[in-house]
Amino acid sequence: MAALGWLTPRRRSATARSVLAGEASAEAARKSSQDTQGVTEREPEFPVLGDDRAAAFFDLDNTVMQGAALFHFGRGLYKRKFFETRDLAKFAWQQAWFRLAGVEDPEHMQDARDSALSIVKGHRVAELESIGEEIYDEYMADRIWPGTRALAQAHLDAGQKVWLVTAAPVEIAQVIARRLGLTGALGTVAESVDGVYTGKLVGEPLHGPAKAEAVRALAAAEGLDLSRCAAYSDSHNDIPMLSLVGHPYAINPDAKLRKHAREKDWRLRDYRTGRKAAKVGIPAAAGVGAVAGGTAAAIALHRRRR
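Structure (tokenized):
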């Protein structure tokens, strides 16, 4: 019994220590779990897989594609003899300026829209849609920013809808969206009667605040929660659209948007220069070559006119 009496307290003591160790381990595990959850809350995985109340909205010009879609479209129409060389020179100069400046000049964009409307007047909508497919292959396909395309694909892979939102003609925007495998596109609507363009717009170009209203209307129709959606643009003109969503991104931003994005702590991506492209794995030569090529083309056209 003496031996047994000696053993019993020791067993109780060991049990107490085991309980203490177990409680300490559980508390440490709980604290570690809370810390991990805190990290997850600070940097949630995005886009969220299976969140069907979220979607992504992408500006087109200089965000998804290098340069302006309308200018590329004009080049394709010139090739098909829709207008003369002097008009192409204007398109080329506008495109070269847009590539170098990286911002939308309202006067340039309005001039380009007016030129395009006068060019397509009297042509059938179906004809322009068919030609748009060809022009995409000829002048647009190799100007898609790989980095932005990857961002759009991430949303698609998460099961979310992805829309282009652009001031470019809706027919062009829909072709690009379809060829990239996106959900669809919102764009400027040109008036047509019996399938023939009249040379006028329906309302105004889808630009600036109009984009935000289009996104708001689409979100309501689709049952989306804008606080869970993302928007991507290069231009300060699109701050109204970017401000609507919970996940705004500045892509290849102009100076005003870059400043605003930093003040608001928005995420930035820049795929244009060698220094910035190195950070995101985009070949620098592609962007530099595109700018040089566009400028050279414009200069050559100008010289031939003189």
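The first strand starts at residue 55 and ends at 58. Confidence is low (pLDDT under 50) at residues 1-12, 35-43, 274-306.
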